[in-house]
Amino acid sequence: MREYIHNSPSQFRTYWLKLVFTGKAIMYKTVRTEEELLETVSNTPGAISFIRIDKEDKRVKTLEVVE
Question: Is pLDDT of 20 > 90?
Fold first, then answer.
């Protein structure tokens, strides 16, 4: 994750919790597997996530991040 958002997972979580507690965001959902991630994103309007390009799936739209 660091390569995309330039923060460690714990730094991202701290930042996000600050937004949640100040009413500027809602808490994100966590999942255990890539399949669960794809299912959650495909069934949640407006949801976004990161996933490996080789796991591309027709249930969701993908956008490749290139540096």
Answer: yes
**Residues 27, 21 contacting (CB under 8 angstroms):** no
- Is residue 4 pLDDT above 60, yes or no? no
pTM of the model: 0.61
Q: Which residues of 41-56 are buried (b: 16+ CB within 10 A; e: fewer)?
A: beeeeeeeeeeeeeee
- The predicted structure's pLDDT at residue 2: 54
Token code pair at residue 35: 């399949």
Are 17 and 66 within 8 A, CB to CB? no
CB 1 within 8 A of CB 50: yes
Q: What is the DSSP letter of 65?
A: -
